[in-house]
Amino acid sequence: MVDNCHAGSSAEMDIIYLSISGTYSLTSQLILTDSVSLEGLGVNETAVNGTNSTRLFTVDDKTAVFNNLTLTNGNAGTDYGGGIYLENNAMVTLNNS
User: pTM surpassing 0.85?
Assistant: First the structure.
């Protein structure tokens, strides 16, 4: 469950709260095309897992901030960026992640 996701709002950066403790397993990568901050509960409480089958995130020409979460088991195959792939001058900040 993702709470308080206000994508497309007038705020400069959207904030997504991963507010349930546990692992969020992905079956495909998440492509971030707006500036976003993903907020977990802590590195021992919140994880995003690619299950060794997919890249976790692609950030395309925006800013992404990852706070208080673990990124694990991303797989880009023969490409770069199993965890996070940056395109077109994208920027990423990791805090407690």
Answer: no
Give 23-33 pLDDT, tens digit per residue: 999 999 999 99
What is the secondary structure of 3-72 as a DSSP string?
Answer: BS--TT-SSSSEEEE--SSEEEE-SS-EEE-S-EEEE-S-TTTEEEE-TTTS-SEEEESSEEEEES-EEE
Strand partners, 17: 3, 39
Residue recorded with tokens 């001058």: 89
Question: What's the CA gap between 55 and 85, in Å, rounded?
Answer: 8
Query: How far is 42 from 58, CA to CA, in rounded Å?
Result: 22
